[in-house]
Amino acid sequence: MSNHSSGHSPGRPPGDAAGDEHLPRTARDLPKDPPRKRARKGAEDPAQDPELGRGSPVGRRLVLGMLGLGAAGVAVGGSMQDRIDSVLASVSAKDPTGVTGLLPGGGGFRFYSVSESIPHRGEDDYRLTIGGLVDRPVSYRLADLRALPQVHLVRDVQCVTGWRVPRTAFSGVRLSTLLDAAGVKSSGTALHFTCFDGVYTESLTLEQARRGDMLVALTMDGKPVTAAHGGPVRLYAAPMYFYKSAKWLSGITVTKDVQPGYWEHYGYDVDGWVGKSNGRHDDPTS
Ligand SMILES: Nc1nc2c(c(=O)[nH]1)N[C@H]1C(S)=C(S)[C@@H](COP(=O)(O)O)O[C@H]1N2
Ligand SMILES: [Mo]
């Protein structure tokens, strides 16, 4: 099996974080069926999970082998873990069983990525840019984000395909803090989020984004957000289904109108309130 740790797949140019384009670049990026069709059936059954049922099936033995490798990686740490991350990404992108979601230490989270590898950025090369309809465009490093006031939240996480992880801790900077610092122009009504996987996008209205429980998250469960969970920085939109919480966050653009995000082109609701959207009736998370 080949895997790629560069954060993009062969044939897809690096670094084009979908700023000028909202549709996935290649046919391979597209789910086979519109997600809502199956998401509505609730699929707690991972085999029915549109977010996982991509690419060709991977044998259960191979997947279990990966899990064993994962356990070894925790013991040796560091670069082995990075390699496991890429293997995990390329396997789970093709794993309709969802078994790869049950990671050692995963705490009930399933792993999702619409790209085929886990991109890595850190202290030196991570940037979060805020631009668009703002008075003061800015680019933050990790240390800059850590120096801003940190907000701690403990909430249930709810995926639109049915799984829920109770009481997960997140901390980071409120979106409203970043928006105030940038100075949103009066013509701005929404935010468009881009990711350094080069594929995923999300959106929020300005009103939604200014809630106190909308974070640019730096920690999850008390530790820096891991690469697999979208670190070093991911969005955490607490009151919304987890697809709104873009992993590998690299750009926030203030826009005139809402630009629907990746999954929203395939039927997920743009306003992703837990329990009040996507035809689901889950208990609220905020
Ligand atoms: N960049 C990016 N962000 C993403 C996704 C993705 O595929 N790529 N998947 C979304 C979905 S559908 C879910 S449920 C959560 C999964 O987060 P986790 O992998 O930390 O469990 O991330 C969301 N953010
Ligand atoms: Mo999801």
UniProtKB/TrEMBL annotation:
Lineage of origin: Bacteria, Bacillati, Actinomycetota, Actinomycetes, Kitasatosporales
Entry-linked Pfam families: Oxidored_molyb
Annotated stretches, region: Disordered: 1-57
Organism: Actinacidiphila guanduensis
Protein name: Oxidoreductase molybdopterin binding domain-containing protein
Composition bias type Basic and acidic residues, residue spans: 19-44
Domain called Oxidoreductase molybdopterin-binding: residue spans: 118-263
